[in-house]
Amino acid sequence: MDYPAVFEKFGSSKAEDGQIFYIDGGKIELLVWGSVNGQNRTLQQEKEYISQKRKVEYQTINDKFFVISGFENGKVYYLRTEKTPTGFRSFEIRYPKEEKEKYDKFVEKINFQEDKK
């Protein structure tokens, strides 16, 4: 996974299927996780499942990934999920709504592709 070096590793997720990273003492949170697709969901079904309790302001989907974003608890969230041969891999970034312009730039710098050096 490619992400800006300013993110500090905070620890594993509660389910121990991912990692949590912070910037600015937790002002920005980056959550990364993977899941096995035991229920054989399509990408569309996974998007619907993840979106069901969220207020989604923006969404897009294609045959490889989906993105949803919006606002929750005074924060912007941006979630991207990609299909893998055995399941899904996802990341979600959250940051204060009032600092959206300042932190939006981090979203485009995060991806699952290895950095080509």
The portion of residues forming beta strands comes to over 45%
CATH superfamily: Mog1/PsbP, alpha/beta/alpha sandwich
Distance between the termini: 14 Å
Number of alpha- plus pi-helical segments: 2
CATH fold-level label: Protein Transport Mog1p, Chain A
Count up the domains.
1
- The structural class is mainly beta
Average pLDDT, to the nearest integer? 85
Looking at the structure, what is the overall shape? globular
Instruction: Work out the helicity level.
Output: 10-25%
Low-pLDDT stretches: none
- Quaternary organization: single chain
State the order of secondary-structure elements, H for helix, E for strand. EEEHEEEEH
Could you explain the architecture of this structure?
The protein is mainly beta and 117 residues long. The protein has one domain: Protein Transport Mog1p, Chain A. 15% of the residues lie in helices and 45% in strands. It has two helices and seven strands; from the N terminus they run E-E-E-H-E-E-E-E-H. The chain has helices at residues 43-51, 100-107, and strands at 8-12, 18-23, 28-36, 56-61, 65-72, 75-83, 87-96. It has a seven-stranded antiparallel sheet with strand order 1-2-3-7-6-5-4, sandwiched between helices. The radius of gyration is 14 Å and the shape is globular. The two termini are 14 Å apart. 17% of the residues are buried.
Short description:
The protein is built from two helices and seven strands; from the N terminus they run βββαββββα.
